[in-house]
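Hey team,

Filing this mostly as a record. A colleague (T.K.) asked me to run one chain through the structure pipeline before their review meeting, and I want the input and output archived in the tracker in case anyone asks later how it was produced. No errors, nothing strange. Just documentation.

Input sequence:
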Amino acid sequence: MALELINANPVVYEKKERPNRQVTTDKNAAEAIDHQEVFDILFGCIVHRMDIIQVLISSPALLRCPDYIKDPEHPYSLEELNVVTEDSVEICDGLNHVIVTFTPTVEHCSMATVIGLCIRVKLMRSLPPYYKVDIRIAPGSHASESDVNKRLNDKERVLAALENADPDLLDKIEECLSPTFA
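Output structure:
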């Protein structure tokens, strides 16, 4: 018996062209990461700052060209489905705090937690460890918004889920990230 899709016919949007930015060659330059750089980490193919490139290259999960995070049900990226947009990424200046708000394609999406975990894992692997990351569902876009937000932002719960998870969950997360971390 085949599994029934939660959203059998999602709307697919065209990827927006992102502006090119200057590369900072001075690794000692004091420049904070902005929302566009975080979005590029999630969905772009270029990391613009040399200090971030050095952190990524020296990290165990070497960041290859981060094409996209794949939707758990469809062969489209979360960007193509407008689940995450550049406007939904916030940086709290001076606090090393990244907030990503995502919008599931349907209000009753059973994959919302998996999508949030994929975003969190991608940022955990890509940003320096001193960054605080909050992943949230857009207000009013999901039937279990508060429960999912609570699960996604409880650090101990997330780490336990990733360490002790059902192998199917870990496989699903890796499948969604595999275009990025092949």
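Quick notes for T.K.: The mean pLDDT is 77. The domain at 35-177 is CATH 3.30.300.130 (GMP Synthetase; Chain A, domain 3).
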